[in-house]
From TrEMBL:
This is Hydrogenase assembly protein HupF. It comes from Amycolatopsis taiwanensis. GO terms for biological process: protein maturation. Transmembrane segments: none annotated. InterPro entries: Hydrogenase_HupF/HypC. Belongs to the HupF/HypC family. GO terms for molecular function: carbon dioxide binding; iron ion binding.
Length: 90
């Protein structure tokens, strides 16, 4: 099962503004924000991430509700976090 998970933007790559570092449940990864088009995220924004791409911006309350839900489903979320840890965008 593949999930879209919320992550908080902690850094925008100065040389590649379509790349951002996000924090997801203690994991930091670079993701591509190019799908957000004319509404790129800023540091502190929350985005919904799937396979290394930000799909949309979401507010913090929605992000926390989704993270609480995902924590409750157990193994599928743990599998998604493991995939995130193993991923790299260069």
């Amino acid at each position: 099962m593949c999930l879209a998970i919320p992550g908080e933007v902690v850094e925008i790559d100065a040389g590649r503004p379509d790349l951002a570092t996000v924090a997801v449940s203690g994991v930091r990864r670079v993701i591509n924000t190019g799908l957000l088009g004319d509404a790129p995220p800023a540091v502190g924004d929350w985005v919904l991430i799937h396979v290394g791409f930000a799909l949309s911006k979401i507010d913090e309350a929605e992000a926390k509700a989704v993270l609480d839900f995902l924590d409750g489903i157990g193994q599928s979320y743990q599998d998604e976090l493991a995939a995130l840890k193993a991923s790299r965008i260069e």
